[in-house]
Design brief:
With 201 residues, this protein is an alpha+beta fold. It has 6 helices and 5 strands. It folds into 2 domains: 54 residues, no CATH class; 94 residues, Cation efflux protein, cytoplasmic domain (Alpha-Beta Plaits, 2-Layer Sandwich). The strands form 2 sheets. Strands 3-4-5 form a 3-stranded mixed sheet. Strand 4, helix 6 and strand 5 form a beta-alpha-beta unit. The longest helix has 27 residues.
Length: 201
């Protein structure tokens, strides 16, 4: 599976080459360099002089009467739109760590499954008074520098500041110590559990 960083580099490289080629073609034609420098342009060159248009009347109407033209245009544009949306969502989504590298003291290190650490932190967070549900996710780009995203659903009687303080001290502190990490940055999102109205007789 391709990594997002590799996809970004490939896309940026291709976009850069395309823009460079298009800009060079426009520059050569717009400045009329072929006449000033006395060289011949190949037959496929898109812009031959300062008065050439990017898309002339012939290019705009060449395939208008063909039945396959518009379906192909819309299909290509649809595929490009889907790819662009996928790429945008991939940028916004934080990378989930599958494993963490733990210093075992022998120089080789040991790998800790990210799901196991997430489960342990979630279980300890849900054991705190006032926490109805906890969702823990390890993120980051490096196995030696993980980050944590925690979602807490609190009972009505729970105080958010107190719960977050105990979460930082207990669940996150124990995870940082067990994994041998110097720091474990965390982002905590707190929501309230909705309860139905009670009927008073």
């Amino acid at each position: 599976m391709l990594r997002l960083r590799t996809v970004n580099r490939v896309l940026l490289g291709l976009a850069g080459l395309a823009l460079f080629a298009l800009g060079g073609a426009v520059l050569v034609g717009g400045l009329d360099l072929s006449r000033h420098w006395d060289f011949a342009l190949p037959g496929w060159w898109p812009f031959r002089g300062p008065h050439d248009m990017i898309l002339g009347a012939e290019g705009r109407t060449r395939y208008r009467d063909d039945g396959w033209w518009w379906p192909v245009v819309f299909a290509v544009l649809g595929v490009l739109l889907v790819l662009m949306l996928w790429w945008l969502l991939a940028q916004l989504r934080k990378h989930r760590l599958r494993e963490i590298l733990v210093d075992s003291g022998d120089g080789a290190g040991a790998l800790l499954r990210g799901r196991a650490l997430e489960g342990a932190m979630a279980a300890e967070a849900e054991s705190l008074d006032g926490v109805s549900r906890a969702d823990v996710r390890l993120t980051g780009r490096q196995r030696t520098a993980p980050e944590v995203r925690v979602g807490l659903a609190l009972e009505p009687h729970a105080g958010p500041a107190e719960v977050v303080g105990r979460l930082t001290r207990d669940a996150l502190g124990h995870a940082r110590e067990s994994a041998g990490l110097e720091r474990l940055p965390a982002e905590v999102r707190v929501t309230a559990v909705r309860h139905g109205a009670e009927r008073v007789l």
